[in-house]
C-alpha cells in the first residue's frame, strides 16, 4: 500500500487541487450555488477514490512483488498478472535470472579450473619433495634433519592447500564407513612421528573403552585429527612434553578428545578461533599461524555432521572434542 501511495502521490495531489480550484473559479465568477459546489466537490472525491481503489486492486500483486524481497532465484520465474507493466516486469526478471545463471556458471567453471589446477599442482610438488627427502638422507647431521624438517612443513602446507581446495566439493568425496578410532589415532601418530620428536612433545593415548568405532569418512577424519594434533604440539612446545588423546563414550555419543597443556587460548579469542584467517593473540607470538587450521576443522566436522567442543584456559592448555552422534561398538580381541 505504501508503495502504491508513493507511486500515485502526484496524481492524488493534482486531483485534489483540481477539485478545489474549479469550484473556486465558479465562486469568483459570481456563481453562488453552494449546494451544487459541495455536490461537485463530493462527486469528484468519490470518483478519485473509486479510481484509486480500482487501480490498487488491479495491480495489487504487482506492487506486492515489488515490495517483497525474493527469497529464491526461482521466484524470478513466477508471473504476476496480465497487465502490460506486470508482463514487462516478468520479462525483465526472466532476463535477469538467465543472465545470473550464465554468470554463475562461468564463475563455477573458473573455480573448478582453479581447483583442478591446485590439485594437480599439489601432487606435482610432492614428487620433488620426496626426492629432496631421499637426498637429505645421504647428508650428515644436522643438515639432514634441517632439510627434512623443512620438507615436512612444506608437505603439511601442501596438504592443507589440497584439502582446502577440496572442501567445496567434500560431499562428492565422502566414503562413509566404520572407522575404529584407536586405529586412526595410531596412524596419525605414526604419520607425525618426526613432528613429535622435533618439537619434543609426545602423544599419550587414553582409551576408556576399547573397540569404539564410528561412522565417518576416514580420510577426512584423518586430516581433521592431524590438524588438531599439530596445533596442540605447536602451542605446547617449550611448555609441556606431552599431549593427551582420549577416546570414550558420553551419553551414548563417542568422543575423540585432543588435550594439550600448552599456552591456552585467551578468553577474548575463544569465540573467533574457528573463523577463517583468525590468528588472535597467539598468532602474533607464533608467526607461522595461518588462521586456517581450526577453521578447516570446524568446516570438515560440520560437513561430516560431527560436533565440536572447545575448552581452554590461559597457561593451562586447550581441549578440543570431536563428537560422533552414533557409535558402533566392536569387541576387541
Keyphrases for this structure?
five-stranded mixed beta sheet, single chain, Heat Shock Protein 90, alpha+beta, 2 domains, disordered C terminus, three-stranded antiparallel beta sheet, 333 residues
CATH superfamily of the largest domain: Histidine kinase-like ATPase, C-terminal domain
Number of helices: 11
Strand and helix order: HHHHHHEHHEEHEEHHEEE
Number of strands: 8
Rg, Å, rounded: 35 Å
What portion of residues is helical?
55-70%
Could you say what the CATH architecture of the largest domain is? 2-Layer Sandwich
Instruction: Specify the oligomeric state.
Output: single chain
Strand order of the largest sheet: 2-4-5-7-6
Poorly predicted residue ranges = 328-333
Helical/strand content category: alpha+beta
Distance between the termini: 75 Å
State the domain count: 2
Mean pLDDT: 81
Walk me through what this model shows.
- With 333 residues, the chain is an alpha+beta fold.
- The protein has two domains: 2-99, no CATH class; 174-329, Heat Shock Protein 90 (2-Layer Sandwich), CATH 3.30.565.10.
- 56% of the residues lie in helices and 16% in strands.
- The protein contains eleven helices and eight strands.
- It has helices spanning 2-7, 9-28, 34-58, 60-67, 84-136, 143-166, 181-191, 193-199, 218-234, 280-285, 293-303; strands at 176-180, 202-207, 212-217, 242-250, 253-260, 307-313, 317-324, 327-329.
- The strands form two sheets. It has a five-stranded mixed sheet with strand order 2-4-5-7-6. A three-stranded antiparallel sheet has the order 1-3-8.
- β4 and β5 form a beta hairpin.
- α2 (9-28) packs antiparallel against α3 and α5 packs antiparallel against α6.
- The longest helix has 53 residues, at 84-136.
- 15% of the residues are buried.
